[in-house]
Each structure stands twice: as C-alpha cells, then as structure tokens.
Amino acid sequence: MKEALRHLPWPVTLIGTYQEGRHNLMTASWVSQVSFQPPLIMVSVAPERYTYQALMATREFAVSILAPDQAEIAQFCGERSGREVDKVKALNVKVVPPQEIKVPLLADCIANIECRVVAHHPAGDHVIFIGEVVASRVQRPEERPLLMKDWRWGVYQPL
Ligand SMILES: Cc1cc2nc3c(=O)[nH]c(=O)nc-3n(C[C@H](O)[C@H](O)[C@H](O)COP(=O)(O)O)c2cc1C
C-alpha cells in the first residue's frame, strides 16, 4: 500500500490560524478543493497539532499556496509546533491583512484562500475540516506551485 501511495504527489500549503492573539502556520499537503458551488476546501489535520486546537476554537483558517522558493518555510512549519515556537516571528515572514477572517495572510506566496469551517469529520488518525471559501487573493499568478513526492520537494512542470 505504501509503495502505491508514494507515487501520489502532494501540494504544499500552509494552514494559517489565529487564536488568542497568536498567528500560527502549519505545513499541510492533505488539502484539496471538494466543491465548486459553494466553493469548499478540505484540510486533513491530526488532533495532536496545535493547528487542530485553533481550528476547533476559531472555525477559521487561511490556506497559502507555496512557491518553490518557500520550501524552507514549509520545512520549518512542518517540523516545529506552534506550541513550542512562534513560527511567524522566528521566520520573520511578511503578512498582509485578510478580507473576511481574522487570520493574517502570507505576503509572498502564490495565493491565499480564506475559509470558514462548515463541518469536520474524523478520518482515521486525522480530522477532515471542510472550509467554505469566503475570500481569496492571488499574488504570484505566473509562479509554479511547490510539490512534494517521496518526502522530497519538487516543482510542477507543465507538459
Ligand atoms: C510536506 C508536509 C506536509 C504535511 N502535511 C500535513 C497535513 O496535511 N496534515 C497534518 O496534520 N500534518 C501535516 N504535516 C505535519 C505538520 O506540518 C507538523 O506536524 C507541524 O509541526 C504541526 O504544526 P502545529 O503543531 O503548529 O500545528 C505535514 C508536514 C510536512 C513537512
């Protein structure tokens, strides 16, 4: 099973949350659009993540689609927890104000998608959060998205 699943490439995004004055960023690959109308996105988050607590408490999140020059940010936000470090401060990332939610948005990523949680469902050792897209902002329309396969960073290459 593992052999087949490792051929599935993953997008690389950051899930932003904002709880009690703390902005946190978590790297997430299990992210997908799941409906056109209304526009819905799913993110799959393990209950032990700091992000999980924030999602349950605030019911809001931002998905930032990362570019190849942001792999280091993805690495850091994917191995450190907001419970132990303020990742936004440590990385000194630039943020811009959101339109509809309270979560600040990453300034230099390809696009930001603002979501409000409309449902959550247990899925094995993760929980799937369904978010309705309430605003979005494209910042680098020509950039190729960062991907991951076999735990290696890669870049989307059009045919
Ligand atoms: C490329 C990559 C993708 C990841 N995707 C997910 C994911 O989809 N869901 C998840 O719960 N954790 C995922 N993680 C792990 C979290 O990013 C990691 O546990 C992080 O430290 C949690 O941060 P937090 O405690 O601040 O929420 C991923 C890590 C990497 C490196």
Describe the protein.
The chain has helices at residues 2-5, 50-58, 71-79, 87-91; strands spanning 10-11, 13-19, 22-28, 31-35, 40-45, 60-65, 95-96, 105-106, 111-123, 126-138, 146-149, 152-155. It is 17% helix and 45% strand. The mean pLDDT is 97. The protein contains 4 helices and 12 strands; from the N terminus they run αβββββαβααββββββ. With 159 residues, the chain is α+β, with helices and mostly antiparallel strands. The chain has one domain (2-155): Pnp Oxidase, Chain A, CATH 2.30.110. Flavin mononucleotide is lined by residues 12, 24, 26-30, 44-46, 49-51, 74, 78-83, 126, 148. Flavin mononucleotide binds next to strand 3, strand 5, helix 2 and helix 3.
Throw out a few tags for this protein:
159 residues; seven-stranded antiparallel β-sheet; globular; three-stranded antiparallel β-sheet; binds flavin mononucleotide; alpha+beta; Pnp Oxidase, Chain A
Spans where pLDDT lies below 50 across 5 or more residues:
none
CATH architecture: Roll
Described by the principal axes of the CA atoms, the overall outline is globular
- What is the assigned CATH homologous superfamily? Electron Transport, Fmn-binding Protein, Chain A
Mean of residue pLDDT?
97
Would you give the CATH topology? Pnp Oxidase, Chain A
